[in-house]
Amino acid sequence: MTAPEWSTDPSLLDTRRLDRSGVEPQGRPAAVVFPRTPEQVQEVLRDAYASRTPVVPRGAGTALTGASTAGAGAIVLDLTRMDRIRELRPDDGVAVVEPGVITAELDRAAAAYGLRYAPDPASLEISTIGGNIATNAGGLRCAKYGVTRDSVLGLDVVLADGRLISTGRATLKGVAGYDLTSLFVGSEGTLGVVVGATLRLRPLPDPTVTFAASYRGVADAVAASVALATARIQPLLAELLDEATLDAIDAADGTQLRKAGSALLIVQVDGGPREAADAAAVLGLAATDLRSTTDAVETAELLAARRGALPAIERLGRPLIEDIVVPRSRLAEAVPEIATIARRHGIPICTLAHVGDGNLHPIIVAGRPGEPIPAAAERAADEIFGLALRLGGTITGEHGVGVLKRAWLARELGPVSHDLQRQLKALFDPRGILNPGKAL
Amino acid sequence: MTAPEWSTDPSLLDTRRLDRSGVEPQGRPAAVVFPRTPEQVQEVLRDAYASRTPVVPRGAGTALTGASTAGAGAIVLDLTRMDRIRELRPDDGVAVVEPGVITAELDRAAAAYGLRYAPDPASLEISTIGGNIATNAGGLRCAKYGVTRDSVLGLDVVLADGRLISTGRATLKGVAGYDLTSLFVGSEGTLGVVVGATLRLRPLPDPTVTFAASYRGVADAVAASVALATARIQPLLAELLDEATLDAIDAADGTQLRKAGSALLIVQVDGGPREAADAAAVLGLAATDLRSTTDAVETAELLAARRGALPAIERLGRPLIEDIVVPRSRLAEAVPEIATIARRHGIPICTLAHVGDGNLHPIIVAGRPGEPIPAAAERAADEIFGLALRLGGTITGEHGVGVLKRAWLARELGPVSHDLQRQLKALFDPRGILNPGKAL
To answer: Which chain A residue lies closest to B394 (C-alpha atoms)?
Structure first.
């Protein structure tokens, strides 16, 4: 076995110490290692275990929480060179991949067989399957097709001491033993290092019909999205844009979205003509404007507002992307309350939501990039987390805990659960070398 | 707080020491307790923890593995009186239930709102949600809509020492902390006692179209089922009946199924007219006979063969229902190999399969009820488990490990994983009182 490539070049290390969260770790990691095989990962872990050196596993570094930041003394385990699709077995509905495979590339490879890899985080063109697994990434179409965990059948994992285990199964179903697979998914590299994954592929659905419906306010838009379920419609995608977001897009792109209504709902369905007709009827009931299309170019136009939201908001200042979930029925309370929080602290907050599963992304505009984050922005974030828990929700829907939300995680879990989770961490990582200070 | 009802009446105890596996535990349990509240479960566990008394949680006792058998000295925790649907929130797509709720009753309650609880084990009219969670029960429609784990959002669990925790969330999405929910699902009561569950409800789909397609042999039937995925069709249900099963049904019911072909494939789709037409074309390609219907009475007739299979096989002798999974593409090897195993041991084995997910139920006819199980039947079962592992599959798809499959579980997991699972068990249950001798 050859030793893995590694580097201590300061300029290279500086590209591997940050993620997209804005979190600044103390100091610079000791080295970055680029393994190409599970055996090389095992070797790195064995050495780190013996020397009690912190190891920070890393994919594309698109985490929004600090989960893949690395400070002084750490070894960064950059897994992006383990990027092969090892097997794609259309008859089994299964793919076996290395952790560095880019999510969208797997999806495109599956499409050649009439299949797809369903989870679609916004970062899918640059983020890796390994990173998606570490954070249990969601996405737009997870309302219907599930989050990353729902597509992971089995994992190859290197444990803290360098031993390799396989969890789960290579089949679509199986219940042998405790579900270690689900435990590793979303654990942000703190329980083991994923070096291989067996993933579920699903048949590509019917072509989609896309709707863009404007409403007088958020309450009407939420009511329309809830009414879809009652009408037996499971949208593939249901995205809500609030008034502040529409204003930001109009200012950036010269559109007139806000004029058509102060809330915009973008919905896609893929269940065939009957479902599409029913969706049009339900969405149209209270809409001030309703457009729909099956044409690819027009679909892109209708989706442009959603895709353009973050760039438009970035023109206002540095975006802090929050990620709470509330029960769907409480969305109509949550969105105006977030607007109230924004006014109280004198800070713009634009809210996007995956309404199908109640997942809100309030985007706090927190000063200018490079400047310190204003205290008012942090207070607003705190109030948003408190709101999520008060409405019976959670502090993170799909981005994870990382460094930023550890204090709030303790509040959400309560002392008994939190203690149990710490004991789990200690069982898997008795020397505390795996991405220390993250996730818990 | 009032103390829970309990009994030491021997005739009552005898109804609580067995499940549907045929496993005979040694002796008779000490008592059966009927809690009605989580607090009463906590009280039982606190006492049992202090006195190191084994506790066997139990729902309807439909386990096929010995998981809910209880021997001398054990306290049986019968949870069937905790049977309330606490909340049904259609707007949130969520139900909150006690563990003793009958699965089919929850599904019917949801249907009143255009929703459903998707997991449908064969026992759904008598088994409980708590039991379904303990075994991560599957069912016919899980090929499309997932197994029990895919519908469990959060749990209330009493730990071994009597402390109560809530895992997961009340929302459709969330990634705060390690996924304890998935760890408890399928753990057969060995890590904690589920006293409440927050479950996902999904929109009822389009009306189904049901097909019954006969083929010359299993290979053609499997090829047809695999071709569905390639044609972008995700069947709700796809059931394969082999030659021995068709013979048994014909003998019991006076039908002529075997005459139409030596393998029968029953398929339901719920994706609308386009999908139904495509399914007819794909299934018809190599079929020797193809029938389809949307009529409720005719649907019941087409499904009658599947539903009547087990009663027909029971006329041949005591059925041992096995439960292996292989990659879908290996089904065409697995079914004839099982027939070869049957011939080699001179024992009838009838095979049913959920082909969508590769889950086979070879039913070994093992002498007469009340007589000892013939050694040849046990050898045949062993060879079936070996076959599953050799084809890259698993020894249990949806029934679990219980008592019967512990030795094979160790082989499937390998020593490192098995050891890790034992350490997990020790972490959650340091005194070994929770359903000891099961699942691991």
So the answer is: A174
